[in-house]
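W.,

You were right to be curious about this one. When I first looked at the sequence I had no strong expectations either way, so I just let the prediction run and decided to look at it fresh. Below is the sequence, 155 residues in total, followed by the output.
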Amino acid sequence: MTWPLTLRADTMGPLDGYLPYLLNRAGARIAEAFGKEVRPLGATLQTWRVLAALRERDGRRMGDLSQTTSIEVSTLTRLVDSMEAKGLVARRHAAADARVVALHVTAAGRRLTQRLLPVAERYERVALQGFEAREAEALKAALRRLYANMDALKA
């Protein structure tokens, strides 16, 4: 594999200049630490993703929720089954079309979300420590753009 990288041999190896590696490394470190911290609260990173998405907009369909959370549909279905058994979410048929099933957060799910929110906010603060507000916004915009750019590989 030829990498279009400019490397300083004295301080960096090839991976230190490879974007997918850097993104994965940062994400994995955050995800692992976050998961360990929320486990005693009865949650996982994936549970948080679902609850955060429902906090943003309750009543999402599974396909939308899968896309928003980046959790594959079959994995999401098992996760939602587990969350429903714990009383965190409920599936409901849409009033306009009984064939459509939407996911709604329950009171217990809202309570857990409120407990997880400060943890998630702290992780963002720590991750962005030393970034100026405009740098943090630029980074987030760049990551959204990077994510959208990957649609080109679907063809």
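Here's what jumped out at me. Residues 62 and 77 are 8 Å apart (CA to CA). And, maybe more interesting for your project: The longest strand covers residues 89-93.

Coffee later to discuss?

I.
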